[in-house]
Amino acid sequence: MSADRALAPLDPQEVPSEPPPRATVKAPSVVILNTGDGKGKSTAAFGTAMRAVARGWAVCVIQFVKSGRWKVGEEQSARRLGVEWWALGDGFTWDSTDMDRTEAVAREAWKVAREKLSSGEYGLVVLDEITYPINWGWIPVSEVVEAILTRPPALNVIATGRSAPAELIEVADTVTEMHNQKHAFDRGVRAIRGIDF
Ligand code: ATP
Ligand code: MG
Questions:
Q1: Which residues have any ligand 1 atom within 6 Å of their CB?
Q2: Residues 21-34, mean pLDDT to the nearest whole number
Q3: Full set of structural domains in the chain with CATH
């Protein structure tokens, strides 16, 4: 970016009319939700996990769609950092030949997640791609909301996935909708090791 560009005035529509309120509340923990159809939901969650590790927190990631067979890059790096990692999905459903099995796998994953959420052992639990089994009716959203509301006070939670249900948006403190402007995939570029997994 050139110096001129850096000094260019802000778009008046983007200039806030009032200074931001002073932050006065120190929350013991927050719930973050990364949703939308653009790239970056899971990677943002894993980036936060890196910050959490630096502060000495115990971190647990539960993946509801990816299966342990895939050995994705983020899992390998996170394990090296001491993150507990559970890839408990059954792959993508459209690859599944046995939907009952896939559903049962999702329910089992939720059982594990629930225990992790209530255990009091962690500073951060990531529920990666949890919106999908919720939206397919396999995990009751009421149970997820209940587990979040009754979690240990110092436990931060990050949930990811497209089309987050309203109940999850409601219970979250910070909700970011990644919006897809374009994606290399749209022009036929295959998923890239080191970038997409
Ligand atoms: P990432 O893991 O890269 O942060 P994500 O969690 O936002 O992506 P998912 O919906 O979980 O997105 O998609 C999983 C895979 O699909 C990733 O490999 C990601 O790069 C890719 N992907 C994400 N968004 C899009 C999109 N809009 N079009 C095509 N592929 C996408
Ligand atoms: Mg994702």
A1: 37-43, 129, 160, 162, 178, 180, 183, 185, 191, 196-197
A2: 90
A3: 29-178 (3.40.50.300)
